[in-house]
Write a structure and sequence with these properties.
Largest sheet: none
Helix content: over 70%
Shape: elongated
Number of strands: 0
Distance between the termini: 33 Å
Radius of gyration: 18 Å
Oligomer: single chain
Structural class: mainly alpha
Length: 156
């Protein structure tokens, strides 16, 4: 007897394999591996208390401070050094958690609207087997793109 959701398991396994490859492959080299925009978010993560104290927040970045806040205080609580490699790893793990949360919500949405198996596979491939997910989220991890992507899926 075959499971009606066997294709889902295969899709998730394929995604996990591709993301594992991306995790251990090349990374952006600019600004110590943080990248251009990532340099701002990484610096904000490492010096969160100082940036808040100095009122270094404008209205554009205010909506993007949740992750730097969470990562900064988790590191502080666990006494983990707020170094560039550690912050990059934290954002990479956060991106992976967000992606698999998005996958879970995608399948919940698919159940809710009763997508056929073929439409579900096409939808999954369109959302998760694309450049921003398979390459950019781990090549250039200190961005808010993957968390925003997941929030969009959850909002659906």
């Amino acid at each position: 007897m075959t499971s009606p959701f066997k294709h889902r398991i295969l899709l998730v396994i394929i995604l996990a394999i591709l993301l594992t490859y991306a995790f251990f492959s090349e990374k952006i080299l600019h600004f110590g591996g943080m990248g251009y925009d990532g340099a701002f978010y990484g610096d904000f993560t490492m010096r969160f208390k100082e940036k808040i104290r100095d009122h270094a927040i404008n209205s554009y970045y205010f909506q993007r401070l949740f992750l730097p806040f969470v990562i900064h205080y988790i590191f502080s609580f666990l006494h983990i050094a707020l170094s560039v490699p550690n912050v990059i790893l934290a954002y990479s793990i956060t991106n992976l958690i967000c992606l698999f949360t998005g996958v879970w919500f995608f399948f919940r949405i698919s159940n809710l609207v009763k997508l056929s198996k073929s439409v579900e596979i096409i939808g999954f491939a369109a959302l998760f087997f694309c450049f921003p997910v398979l390459k950019l989220c781990l090549y250039y991890p200190i961005l808010m793109d993957i968390p925003a992507f997941t929030i969009a899926i959850v909002m659906v």
